[in-house]
Each structure stands twice: as C-alpha cells, then as structure tokens.
Amino acid sequence: MGKLSVNLCGITLDNPVIPASGTFGYGYEFAELYDINCLGTFSFKGTTKDPRFGNPTPRIAECTAGMINAVGLQNPGVEQVIARELPLLKKCFHKPVMANVSGFSVEDYAYTCEKLDKEEQVGWLEVNVSCPNVHGGGMSFGTDPKAAAEVTAAVKKVTTKPVIVKLSPNVTDIVSIAKACEDAGADGISLINTMLGMRIDLRSKKPVIANKMGGFSGSAIFPVAVRMVYQVANAVSIPVVGMGGVSSAEDVVEMMLAGATAVEVGAANLVNPFACRDIIEDIPRVMEEYNISSLSEIIGGAK
Amino acid sequence: MKQGLFEIIENKPLTKNVFQMTLRGDVSHITAPGQFVNILLDGLYLRRPISVCDLGESTLTIVYKVVGKGTRQMSMLQSGTLDVLTGLGNGYDLALSGDKPVLLGGGVGVPPMFLLAKRLITQGKQVRVILGFNTADEVFYEAEFKKLGADVVVTTVDGSYGMKGFVTDALAEMEYSYFYTCGPEPMLKAVYKASKTSGQMSFEKRMGCGFGACMGCSCKTITGYKRICKEGPVMQKEEILWEN
Q1: Interfacial residues of A (vs B; Cβ cutoff 8 Å)
Q2: pTM of the full predicted structure?
Q3: ipTM
C-alpha cells in the first residue's frame, strides 16, 4: 500500500479522492481534460430505473461560497447507462467505479442495483437515499431510519458488491439513520448529500430555481459535513466516505481526521474541472507539512 | 476546453451598461464563432459564461452587459489576470450559410455575431447584419460591423435610432440564403417564426459549470435532451422545441 492509498470496503484505492456523483458525469468527458486514472475512483451520475429529464430550468443558483442545484436526477436510465455510458467509460478508466443509484420505490432501487451488479467495472454501489430534488423518492428514504434500512436490505439481497448508503444532512439525527443502515447490512456510509436551500431573486421577487428549493453545496457546507462525518464515524463500525464542500488537499486530510476512509469532491469540480487532479497532486505536500506518513493511519484520528 | 490565465489589456464602456473587455492569452482552443468562455471572479463561486465577440492571434474580446454582481465586478477591472475556460460550446456552423446569410443580434446577442460576420466575410459571403436594440443609447458596434464590410441595419423598438421596430421587421424586407441569430428568447422565437429559411440560433440559460458536467442547463429538443453549454448554445432551427 502506498502512502496515499486506503482500503474502501475491501477494494484498495490509490488515493482517497473520489469525484462525487452528479459533478463528473460518467467520467469520459473529464477524460478529455486529464487522465482520470489518477483518481481513487469516481461516483458516476445518479442512475435510475427509467430515463429522466429532471426538473425544469433554472436549476442552478449561486450562493456565497457555494451553489444550489435542482437538477432532479437527469440520467438516461440504467439500460442506456449499461449499453452506452459504461462502454465509453471503460475505454478511459481502468479502475473499479462507484455506481450511484437512486429510486422512487424500494423495488426501483433493487432493480437498478441488480442490473449494475452484473457490470464488471462496478466496484461499489452507492445508494442515494438523499436526493433533495425529486418528489416521492430520494430524500424521503433517507430521512426515516426504517425506510433507509428497507432500501439497504433490499439492495443487499441483489448484489454481492459493497453497498454504500449515501445519507442526507436534512435530518435531526443522522446517527440513527446511519446505524439503521449498518444494521440492515450496509457495507459503508457516505455523507453528506446537499443541504436543502433556497434563493430568491430581488428583481423578479421569485425563487431563482424553477423547483423553488434545491441542494446547497460548495465550500460553505464543509464544517457541517465534517461534524456529521465525525458523528457517524464514531457511531458505526463500517467505513465512512466523507463529502460536502471539500475543495483542497487540506480539506481531504481534515475529513479523514474526522473519520472518513475516503473523500468525495463535488461542487469544486464544477468550478475547476481539474479540481480532483489538483487536490491529489497537492496531498503529498500537505502530508509533509503536517507530518503524516500514511493517509490510512489518520482516519478518525481526531478524537 | 482549456483552462488558462488571461491578462486584461482593456476594459471600456460601449454604452451605459455594456462593456468591452480585451484579454491576452492562449486562444487556440476557441474553434468557432458562437462559442463562449467561462470566467472565474474573485469571491464569487460560479464562473461567468460570456460569448466570444472577437479573436486575435493571442487576444480575446468579450462584450458584456452589467446585470448582476459578477458583471458589475468585471466592469470595474482595469488590469490583472483572470482564470478563463475557453473553447466552450459548439458554436455556429459556417458551412450552411449559403451566399447571402443574414445575422440578427439583439442587445447583448450582438457580440457573437461579430466574429461570425468576420469569418463569413473572409469566406467571401455577402453578409447582412440586423442589430436590434430598445433605444438609441443602447446601440453599439454598428461602425465595427460596417468596417468588416457587412451591410448593417439597426432597429430600435422606440424608433429613436435607425429603423423603428424589431429585428424581424427588418428581416421581412430582406432576401437571404440562411440566418444566424443570438438574443433574448422572445426575439429568438420571433425570428424562428418570421424566418423564411433554415438557420441557427444561440440560446442562453443559467449554467453551473459551463462544460457539460452538472446538467444545470439542459433543454429538450426534437432530437433529444441537450445541454446548452455542451451540445449548444447554438441549435439548428429544425431541432428547437419551444418550452412555453
């Protein structure tokens, strides 16, 4: 194992940096910009059973140190993802990829996961029970421990691959939900998804986003993410993937000290398409500066 | 797409709230008129997408209207460097123009027409340009287009300068082989209805990343879902599906 490598649910990552779902497409477009094999892995665009256009536009609003999105899980559907997107990805990415899955019913989640389970390149299933931008699904599964456990158990039945459940911060007790997922068989927890937010345009006096509310992300939410990762990592015995406002190598190290085994980078990719590559290249400098000889040794180091 | 640092060499007002900024840097990734650049500004989270107005060997000219915090900040810059993504969007396809294309620009939809006119004229096309504004004090770039050798008609809604009316009123009196346009959506819709030939129109939408990653600016077209920033901003008339 190298100085930067970590083990995520039995699979070794060369480094802990993972572009977060919804900020990196299915990878191949970023491969035109740099060799994406430098990444630990990446979590591909949230995939559902059926194709989705998503929400009406505007879907984006700027905030201080962040942004709100209400894309609404636009994706071509699992069939097309397997037929068209994954073959394109395979040509430019030679590591296991994290398959991000969303749904509107327990059956939806299980259906999509079962399909993706058969794809050789899929290393982990990241089950998103926390999308704030769709009605009658997504986040409603992640705000109730019982529903989150039900999705987890249903997905576990159809796959042998590690299942990482992605949680919403829009809850009063994140620990109870994380524990419910662990008890239902989850192999890992990832958090935090975006925080529910809203902006209003002073000129039109209307919400900026067509869907009115959306998911707030970006560096502004980093302290909230660190706190929640810390709480969850100290309450469960499965690996935690930390995310939320990560935009520098220092943030990666801080997230790992809070208890993250690996770290996802989201909104930062949208501002700087080279963000993940730049962060990975900068990690050795930060390790040296803070006397860290191996990243895996610092996981959960902040007690 | 390419990320580069650009030096501000000039930034001057053309009208009360429209500015022209000239930047020096690597423009090699800008391949077509109608493409845009995405500019990072101090203290603001998202980049600002602005269309390319003109290109030199190592210079880039953009013309933008002050509409919010970002463009106001841009208007006050006199020197320094900017982090710019270049080569974004598909741009206009010149091959379809025929011999007598007409270019219609409305307000800040005028700038992308400039490089397009320049390229078409270089190809020997007889280029007519219709520039539409609300009032006389908003008019810019008429002389610049004339200098290129284009036939220019200016329209103002209130008739305070040039022909009174909309760009479509000027279009009705013309013979043309093809059209290219950029402007506010109501204008695009009017051009779509009034045009007698095929053509291309450039759309604007609030963007997240500007390079196809976030799906923030998606739209529906006759040929499927498209991202304004990636498969657009230029669409063929025949593929447009008006949402409202």
Answers
A1: 22-25, 29-30, 32-33, 45, 53-54, 56-67, 69, 71, 74, 208, 218-219, 267, 269-274
A2: 0.95
A3: 0.93
